[in-house]
Give the backbone structure.
Amino acid sequence: MKKLTRSEFLQVSIMLFGLFFGAGNLIFPPLLGNQAGSASLISILGFSVTAIIFPVLGAIVVGKTDGLLNLSKRVGPTFAIVFTTAIYMSIGHGLGIPRAGSVPFEMAVMPYLPQGFSVVLARLIYTFVFFSLALWVSLKPNKLVRRIGKYLTPTLLLMIGFMFVRVVFLAKDVALPTGDYANTPFLKGFLSGYDTMDAVAALNFGYVIALAIRRFGVKDKKQVTNYTMKAGLLAGLVLFVVYAMLSSIGMLTSGMFAGAENGADILSSYVRMAFGDFGLVLLAAIFTLACLTTCVGLITSGGDYFFNLFKQRFSYRFWVIVWTFFSFVMSNFGLNKLLEFSVPLLTLIYPVALVLIVMGVTHDFVNYSKASYFVAAFVSVFLPLVQILDQTLNLTLPFLTELQRSLPLAGQGLSWVLPTLVGLVLTEALVKGFYLVKSPVRA
């Protein structure tokens, strides 16, 4: 029975970290540290629940069920197609991939262009090179582990570590927590972890990891699941260390950069202070590598999904080229329009994604019925839909809008949590009670 060598396992684990770690993961922790100040430790623990634990569990569940489509089929076949396609389109080609090309340019290149140089031309050149590299890596899925896990991500980690070590030798100026971090630091950190979108991305990446393990010759399903779980745990540990370093940069400079609007500003100000002009080059390289690894994961998982969705009528290579070209065009000319559509869609699918992750993790212990999956999915989609109609489109529904607003945690955008839990428990109790009455245990 084939087993992964230590080197192969480390490559898979580091590749999973690289797939998760994009631009958002780079800028949110410094902002957390800046705003949480002296309360950064408790805040980063809350952040880790939604930015590490849920994503790792999601990758494990999807790897175990051989793909997101199989997991979502527990709700129903129509839901599975609609939900899975929405996940791949919104987190991938509809938002994540185009944004992966434009964000590092806007944050780490555009502010330092020579005066008079065309921003449009510079973005076109940058994204062309960026997506050419992403396409080159994505076209050879058999070499994905080596290219990301052995080269790209370790380089990224070294640069982040180098950036962090410098802050240790700077003067410390830790401020008091501000805003919600002053009153509920753990909850605020928990909600901030949503912004990474990694719990949704995990539903793409889990299958990529399982395939990577199989390509090393591991065929036994239990072994694949076991290695996916271990790789997820190691990737999660590395994520926590990196988040701790980045939030420390924000915390230790929170007094100097008080009132910073985003993590990119904090990192830019910090590297300029710590490294001079070289720091800007370092930051641009870190942003580019972070986005490149995530982009490759999204392209490959999306290409594989549509390759199988259309019964392999078009090759994997075709889908990878099409989506890469589409993302290149959108990153230059249509990103704002995509954001207008994709962000509300993500708000709609994120809760049900979390629900499926939790139910997938606990399924072997509870053996949920199909009715329970359906009810939990329905409630966790319906209430966020009412919220989106209310807050985004200013469309109120008789009775339903007021009901949604009055539910616990509605102010934090979590009105779906308690009703979903109640609906799940009641449905499961009714189903199991029905079968118990129908088939009583005989003495």
Remarks:
- The chain has two domains: 6-333, 336-443.
- Residues 46 and 187 are 6 Å apart (CA to CA).
